[in-house]
Amino acid sequence: MISIKRILKIIGKALKNALFILCVRHAPKQIKKDSIIIIKTDSIGDYLLFRNFIPEIRLAYPKYSITLLGNIAWKTLSKSLDSNYIDEFIWIDKGRFPKKYLHTIIKLHKIQYSCYDILINPLHSRDETSELIAKYIFANSKYTSQGDCINLQSDAKQKADLIYTKLFPSSKSILFEFYRNQEFFENFLNKKLSIKLCIESKIKTQNHHIKKTIEQGEYATLFIGANAIYRKWSMDHFAKVACYLARHNMNIIICGGKEDLENSNLLVSIISKSIKDMPLGNDSKQPNKTNLNITNLVGQTTLNELAQIVQNASMLISNETGCAHLGAIIGIPTFVISNGNHLGRFTPYPKALQKIYYAIYPKSIMQAINNEKAYMDLCQSFAFRSNLAINEINADCVISTIESFLCNLKTSKQAILN
């Protein structure tokens, strides 16, 4: 027997849906001739692995007005980097859309003001947000990828597929996300593409505190944040790596989100105590304590300011998150601690794209990484989520990877001098 609570829930949902249908527009206010809207509502890393294809759309449609409907999380960076190709931006706050009902209705009402010629949704793993927007935007033609069911159940995806004019085929195998985007845009543009993954220009901000901080000498950036607890390495491990870098007289800048503030204060405390307890001496591996700076900028930077910090760093040590993609694409030595989440899709970077990206995983992945079959089996297993504990990765594994990089760098410099 259905409970009263269950009945009320069903009635409430039906009333909400009825209100939704009544409130959204049933016709656009204007027809935007020669216009394209691109839906890209996923995270910072997804955006960074997509944005180099925007110029190709502009090249193919030089006289079209192009609108990018994106995630507000990467608004500042996109406006800095993509404004030469994008005519209009529309921003979605995924913390509110579609969770907050009234906000969602108001936002959709604004989005529906215009009718576009072409809607492009390049997301391979489409979700509730992207499909709700794609459904209610007015467009003469709508294009997307066949994609997968990672973010949508099979029946929901089948319904969502009906929104589109055409679904382009997509490989069933695990592809690194940049190559997945290339697959989609080659299908959409009907031509082979040779695109470089890069951030084309130096990112500069007007924050004088940031400028002063990055001018204090050689430094490493530690990014301690991530969007889930199981993707966050412990502060004790980060502290050991920081102390190793301090022995090389490298300053430390700690970054992360506001939610990481408590952890960052703990990290600074552990590092400061460890450095204080280091013996003084003539050993070249003892830090110059008087000149060493540990700067905690957690929760204090915009995405552009974070990018400026990363691009001026000697190296980045980061959880597998948007900042790791920033470091890799900017082209600085990037050391990424990952439990193998989305293995093969977002990590590791193929050497053809980035040679100085170093991923450190739990032992079971590290043992399989040079065995193609075992590695691909793990990629399939961790396509949605890895169940491996990130803190299985000890600090010594990361330190030895950095040590090896620094030794090779020193050898290369000596070879050039000789």
Q: Can you give a write-up of this model?
A:
- This protein is an alpha/beta fold and 418 residues long.
- The protein is built from 16 helices and 13 strands.
- The chain has helices spanning 4-23, 44-48, 54-60, 75-82, 101-111, 128-136, 154-161, 177-189, 208-214, 235-247, 261-276, 303-311, 322-330, 363-368, 372-381, 395-417, and strands spanning 30-31, 35-40, 65-71, 88-92, 114-121, 138-145, 166-168, 219-223, 251-255, 294-296, 315-319, 334-337, 357-360.
- Helix 10 (235-247) runs parallel beside helix 16 (395-417) and helix 12 packs across helix 13.
- The chain is globular and about 75 Å long.
- Keywords: Glycosyltransferase, Transferase.
- One of its GO terms (cellular component) is cytosol.
- One of its GO terms (biological process) is lipopolysaccharide core region biosynthetic process.
- Overall body shape: globular
Strand-residue proportion: 15-25%
Fourth CATH level, the homologous superfamily of the largest domain: Glycogen Phosphorylase B
CATH topology of the largest domain: Rossmann fold
Task: Estimate the helix proportion, in percent.
Answer: 40-55%
**Mean model confidence by pLDDT:** 93
Low-confidence stretches: none
Biggest sheet record: 7 strands, parallel
| Rg of Cα set | 24 Å
Layout of helices and strands:
Blueprint: H1 4-23, E1 30-31, E2 35-40, H2 44-48, H3 54-60, E3 65-71, H4 75-82, E4 88-92, H5 101-111, E5 114-121, H6 128-136, E6 138-145, H7 154-161, E7 166-168, H8 177-189, H9 208-214, E8 219-223, H10 235-247, E9 251-255, H11 261-276, E10 294-296, H12 303-311, E11 315-319, H13 322-330, E12 334-337, E13 357-360, H14 363-368, H15 372-381, H16 395-417
Parallel strand pairs: 1-5, 2-3, 2-5, 3-4, 5-6, 6-7, 8-9, 8-11, 9-10, 11-12, 12-13
